[in-house]
Amino acid sequence: xSLHLIRQTVQRFRDISLKNKIFFSIIAVxxxxxxxxxxxxxxxxxxxLIDELELRGxxxxxxxxxxxxxxxxxxxxxxxxSLIFEEAKLKERQHLVSYIFVSDREGxxxxxxxxxxxxxxxxxxxxxxxxxxxSVRLTRIGDQMAYDIATPINQGIYRIGTVHVGLxxxxxxxxxxxxxxxxxxxxSAVVVIIxxxxxxxxxxxxxxxxxxxxIAEEVSKGNFDVKLDFEQVSKGGQPTECPAFANPEVACRHxxxxxxxxxxxxxxxxxxxxCMDCRFYRSQKGDEVAQLADAFYNMIWSIRLYRRRLxxxxxxxxxxxxxxxDPIFVINHQSFDIIDANPRAVExxxxxxxxxxxxxFTELAPEHTHxxxxxxxxxxxAHGLVTYPKALHYKKGQxxxxxxxxxxxxxxxxxxxxxxxxxxxxxxxxxxxxxIQANKMKSLGEMSAGxxxxxxxxxxxxxxxxxxxxxxxxxxxxxPPSDLHQVVSEMSTQVDRAAEIINTxxxxxxxxxxxxxxxxxxxxxxxxxxxVARQFELxxxxxxxxxxxxxxxxxxxxxxxxxxxFNLVANARDAIIEKNQRLPDRPVGTIRIRTYQKGNRVxxxxxxxxxxxxxAVRDKIFEPFFSTKESSIDxxxxxxxxxxxxxxxxxxIQLASQEGIGxxxxxxxxxA
Amino acid sequence: MEKIxxxxxxxxxxTMFRLMLxxxxxxxxxxxxxxxxxxxxxxxxxxxxxxxxxxxxMNGIEVLKEVKAxxxxxxxxxxxxxxxxxLAIQALNxxxxxxxxxxxxxxxxxQAIQRAQExxxxxxxxxxxxxxxxxxxxxxxxxxxxITAASEDRLQSLYREALALDKPRIVLHFQxxxxxxxxxxxxxxxxxxxxxxQGRQVVVAELSENLRKVFDIVGLSKIVPVVxxxxxxxx
Lengths: 672, 235
Prior knowledge:
The structure holds two protein chains of two kinds.
Chain A: H1 2-15, H2 18-74, H3 77-88, H4 93-96, E1 97-104, E2 109-112, H5 120-123, E3 135-141, E4 144-155, E5 158-168, H6 169-220, H7 243-246, H8 288-323, E6 328-332, E7 338-341, H9 343-349, H10 353-356, H11 361-364, H12 369-377, E8 386-395, E9 399-412, E10 415-424, H13 426-474, H14 481-509, E11 517-519, H15 522-538, E12 541-546, E13 554-556, H16 558-581, E14 589-598, E15 601-608, H17 615-618, H18 638-648, E16 652-658, E17 662-670
Parallel strand pairs in A: 12-14
Antiparallel strand pairs in A: 1-2, 1-5, 3-4, 4-5, 6-7, 6-10, 8-9, 9-10, 11-13, 14-15, 15-17, 16-17
Helix pairs in contact in A: 2-3, 2-6, 6-8, 13-14, 13-15, 14-15, 15-16, 16-18
Chain B: E1 3-7, H1 11-23, E2 27-31, H2 34-44, E3 48-52, H3 60-70, E4 75-80, H4 85-93, E5 98-101, H5 106-121, E6 128-134, E7 138-147, H6 152-165, E8 169-174, E9 179-180, H7 182-198, E10 201-205, H8 209-218, H9 220-223, E11 226-227, H10 230-234
Parallel strand pairs in B: 1-2, 1-3, 3-4, 4-5, 7-8, 7-9, 8-10, 10-11
Antiparallel strand pairs in B: 6-7
Helix pairs in contact in B: 2-3
């Protein structure tokens, strides 16, 4: 039961405020100490006082006993009386000494200081036993109480009388009472002072704590602009006076002290002179409470700075998201559904924001999106950027357009997500196409003389055949049936031949579609062969084909591949001509095109035995506007465009060359 | 039967030549390249050689040189692509008899062969036949056959005679079978420039198609008026 009570008390004590805890604890301790002191004082002071007074009484008695022995023997009563009166009334003793009387051996009172009749009860009230030197006993005299101190008067070994000194008990009690009152008064004063001090101290400790609590509450509610008005505040100013607060890009020496210089802002060199004596971060000398207040103040200031930075950063990224020039999507990590899209995405893709959100991203980009995102996911937590060039996306209404994609892993509302920016490069792709087309037209221009010659051959045969027939008819001569058959079948063949040249030309000149198709790589090679082989023959250059008919198709454009091979064989021809110009008697050059399948790659090799490429320029050979030929005849775009086209199809082009021996271009594409 | 050699890398063309020239009554020899052609020429010694200029391996110009080296009197007609006048002039300078453009016009082929035949007939004699004939307002020099370096004396004397006639203009009247080689071009050019210096009006009339092309290429048609017929030249 009592245990329960203690527990309850302890619990109650716990619940009371810190101020009261301090206050009550100290008061309780002081009270306990006071009580102990009071008890000790009573023990020591009061008893000592009484003993001291007794000793004084004994001393008086002994003095009288000494001086009175002669008078007793002489029975000189007047002297004796005068002696005891003298002793009794000496100075302040009169208050202490109630009476003195001297009795003889038989106990008869010889003389006394009482002004009335000697009370008989007093005479024998306190007798000194024979072996004792004194006896103290409380006696009653009239209505008063007194301590009777009896001392024997000895002459030699004989006791001749007894001296009794009565000490006034009232007086003693008064003295004790006075002592007690003074002492208790002092103790009370001490307690009161301590009470006040304790009160003040408790308030001093708890008031800042109370204020800090209030501020912390405000802060926890999100009010960071709460006034930090502690008593210790001696600095401070408008927040905008802090360079780091005014401009979140500026590093704060206090806040970013542990960061590497480049981690935030300009580093050491950029310390604002204002910051040399920071007006916001404080570290005062003072007691723990002041230091706590400072630390708290600094914490709040740090939070304010951080919050401001965060807000600025949020604002910055939000504005990037909202007003960025490119569409930005936030995409679910698992389902690839669109979680968020910026206004530019709405504008470019033509869907409303509501339509976009929740839509699987694969609807906008049906091709390669899965692989792309999977490659991103395989990165795991790494926040690297994964780029996908020239992806085909569809706007509302299935309108295709080209974009470059940049995506990285992120977290959105606590969930892993993909943030993806898509840059519309349709215009660039169109410009590319125009450039490719221009290069093609240039090629066509270069070819035109040869093509004319080539077309002239079948036309010539047809013309001669028809002239022959006309002549025979005019001259009414009989045409042998075999001749007639030969002429007409040859004419038909030659028409086909001319038509093929024209078709090849047409397909070469046509602009490529946006979408790639499955192309048997042998076909463009053959087309180029049709266009150039005979012309090359005229320059004593053999164009040899070694084509594997069993290779897989590749995803490409037929006529762009024609352009690739045309550019390569045209370069090969130039290389051979350049080499042969230095040699006498028109040697024969050879260009060999070989195709084969290697694993899941389709490979085409264009090999010549021309002049070769110098090591010094080998790295530049695919660069635009680089040419080894005279600048007036060559823009230096042929191989750059070739390279661009091959790369566009995800293909690879490798160069091996030996100066004076020849050059080999090896192209490889993924089999479709 | 007279032999004629055709050298062309185009088989269909060779086939057509064979049919056509056989119909004209020639024994037609064909070769698909210059090397083969020269072998046949050395063996068969045909009077007339038709060779394509653009051929893989040995080209027509080389064939022309080789043939002329073997037999300077051989008549070599070069076949040029359309518009390849530079090669035609080069061939003429190398003493080719004539040139024909592809696609080959039947009448041009006939004329070229005919001229070659006539030149062969006139071989050893005066290669060119030129006659001065004064008319009312002009001195007309009629030219037929092949104008070569050998024609210089005759042409110069006729020109001086024409000047002496003191007519307002001199007409160079080319016959259908007239042909010209490199040296002949140089000769005519020199003559025309001279007359221009002297302030004499010279008109060229009735150039054959091939000659007209040659005159255009070497720039003679800019120096003197070229007209289609003698009547126009006299008008």
